[in-house]
UniProtKB/TrEMBL annotation:
Belongs to the acetolactate synthase small subunit family. Keywords: Amino-acid biosynthesis, Branched-chain amino acid biosynthesis, Transferase. It catalyses: 2 pyruvate + H(+) = (2S)-2-acetolactate + CO2. One of its GO terms (molecular function) is acetolactate synthase regulator activity. Its EC number is 2.2.1.6. Residues 30-105 form the ACT domain. The keyword Transferase applies. This is Acetolactate synthase small subunit.
């Protein structure tokens, strides 16, 4: 008798091997979900994540079509490719969901976030905070004798870098909007 053996970890090239090859490496994905603007939709979307133990790194929601009563939910999440595929499939099954787009895999996209930073301090730290704000193109939206509130927009990595530099200069508080994203091109 002849037996066909496949080494552990090897892939079969059979037409019946329908299981795609997925990685165990976690990836960050930005999902754009177009939904009906009605009560309870956001709770259902969030419930899908919490009920299955998926994490949301960023979440933004706003009505994008007043006449059609449609809202866009932008979700940034991290997971293995299998988990991301499960999330997209489960989101697509929620009744008020119109479309689910994975901007990470669909091509180039633009991501921006707005953040405000309250920085308190005096002397050289105050001067350094203003200098760094100028480099990062952050705007001063409030100023007192002891603190500044900076407003900055950009990619999440830029916001993170600004926060790290402001921490030793007297960072008191941070407010972030979460990621807004659109695909590039046509």
């Amino acid at each position: 008798m002849s037996a066909l053996k496949i080494k552990k970890g090897a892939t079969s090239h059979s037409a019946y091997n329908l299981r795609p090859n997925f990685s165990d490496v976690e990836e960050r994905h930005t999902l754009a979900v177009l939904v009906e603007n009605e009560p309870g939709v956001l709770a259902r979307v969030i419930g899908l994540f919490s009920g299955r133990g998926y994490n949301i790194d960023s979440l933004t929601v706003a009505e994008v079509d007043h006449t059609g009563h449609l809202s866009r939910i932008t979700i940034v999440t991290t997971g293995t490719p299998q988990v991301i595929e499960q999330i997209k499939a489960q989101l697509g099954r929620i009744v008020p969901v119109h479309t689910v787009n994975d901007l990470t895999v669909e091509g180039p996209s633009v991501e921006r976030e707005l953040a405000m930073f309250k920085v308190s301090g005096g002397g050289e730290k105050r001067v350094e905070a203003l200098r760094l704000a100028d480099i990062f193109r952050a705007n001063v939206v409030d100023s007192t004798l002891t603190s500044f509130v900076f407003e900055i927009t950009g990619a999440p990595e830029k916001i993170d870098a600004f926060a790290e530099l402001m921490r030793p200069l007297g960072l008191v508080d941070v407010a972030r909007t979460g990621v807004a994203a659109l695909s590039r091109g046509d």
